[in-house]
Amino acid sequence: MSKRSAPFVAPDHIEDPTSKDGKKHAKVLLSTLQEDIARFRNEQFPPDILRQIRDMPIYEGNLAEVQAYQHDWQPLLERAVAFYPAANLPPDYLPLPASLEIPQFIYHVQRLHLTKTRAKESKSFGSVGALTDKCGDYKADEIARMAAVFDNDDEARLVAHREFIDLRAYVFCRDSKGEMLEPERVRFYRTGLIVHALPDFKIVDSRQTPRKRRNDAYSNPLADNGIWKIYRKK
Prior knowledge:
This protein is α+β, with helices and mostly antiparallel strands. It has helices at about 20-45, 65-85, 130-135, 140-150; strands at about 50, 60, 105-125, 160-175, 185, 195-210, 225, 230.
């Protein structure tokens, strides 16, 4: 199952984090962290001590190599966890947001399965103006059909769908007893993926045959500008 990211929480050291000034302070600190990550990433990614897998932003090494590279990232990781304290903790093991662009580190990896999947990005809107601001222009008759949805129902919503090819890795790890665990599905293209490869580590590359997306519950769009298809939200 794909994962959402860990939720944002203002750090404890911010005075009155729910106030307007507290939220502004947290936003400034998070922006500073993102700048520091970008600077460090520019200098230290890709890692020169690890080996790249295929043409992907995935790098593998032995335990000492991966631990050494994670150690370099550790100060930034700790600062990030101050904003996202639930990251990688049970019961959900939610990752840090991909927008931070901190590499994901996974240990005891036996097999890596690279896949492409037909996927769908979805956005919901309560007005035609908000929709066109995000999704672009539509024909006049399509605008009229969308406007009619709101004219007839004040509580209606429009949903925009954009299809894309989603790149993922299924990561198979072993536990402390050496038994294979259920695979973890990871989106890695924005952050990068760092894996500690076990002996006889294998790579399965299925990117040439994208998996089919599940049947869409929506059909017959109200509007379609070639990128975003618009439907009345069910």
